[in-house]
Write a structure and sequence with these properties.
The chain is α/β, with parallel strands linked by helices. The protein has 11 helices and 8 strands. It has one domain: TIM Barrel. Helix 4 packs across helix 5. The structure holds erythose-4-phosphate.
């Protein structure tokens, strides 16, 4: 399973990349706005640290998405153009596929949307499970449906579990065989932790101190 960081904070990317387990970064307009830094500079700084950085188009029409996506993809070979799941977005995905531009389809909330994006040639689809949970649905059921459907076909589209809220989402996504999870920084920090690791290590070190005396 690939693990991505969901952020526009370069310090956070550098920290998690230093663990040696970070496969990519996803950004979105809200995350970029939160940091308040230059979009292109932020994305390029991230490209120096990881091999896959999703940069989202903000145009809503096909021509605008095409123009932005072609520009972004020219900035760095690590850039993946993030396209919203709309009919205009589908047209853009098909166009990017023919040009060899890698894409990530964002705001996927149903299996039918996932199938359309895959057929349009998306390299990655991003179902937002936390937002489904927030709306009173079971977001992980969507991942289960997509992974079950993917077994019947030969889509080469990777399933990226997005809008992750807590570590158990990663555990469940892994059991379902999802290809990628993108995690907020605070969830990433929780992943290595277990109380029994902490107490176990303390006992080892206390015993070692006693032995040395
Ligand atoms: C994914 O690429 C999105 O940036 C992200 O996971 C959205 O999550 P949110 O629901 O926490 O905003």
């Amino acid at each position: 399973m690939k693990l991505f960081l969901d952020t526009a904070n370069i310090d956070h990317v550098a920290e998690i990349a230093s663990w040696g387990i970070l496969d990519g970064v996803t950004t979105n307009p809200s995350l970029i706005a939160k940091e308040g830094k230059d979009f292109k500079e932020t994305v390029l700084n991230m490209c120096d640290l990881v091999g896959c950085v999703s940069a989202q188009v903000t145009a809503e029409d096909f021509e605008g998405m095409k123009k932005q996506g072609e520009e972004y993809s020219g900035w760095h070979k690590h850039i993946v153009v993030k396209v919203p799941m709309t009919t205009e977005g589908l047209k853009a995905l098909s166009s990017f596929r023919t040009k060899g531009i890698r894409t990530n389809t964002t705001l996927v909330f149903s299996l039918n949307q996932a199938i359309l994006a895959a057929k349009a040639g998306a390299n990655i689809i991003s179902p937002f499970i936390g937002r489904l949970d927030d709306a009173g649905e079971e977001g992980m059921h969507l991942i289960a449906d997509i992974m079950a459907a993917w077994k019947h076909y030969d889509f080469d589209t990777e399933v990226l579990v997005a809008s992750v809220r807590h570590p158990d989402h990663i555990r469940e996504a892994a059991i379902l065989g999802a290809h990628i999870c993108t995690l907020p920084y605070d969830v990433f920090l929780k992943l290595p932790k277990h109380p029994l690791t902490d107490t176990g290590l303390k006992k080892f070190l206390d015993d070692w101190e006693k032995y040395k005396k």
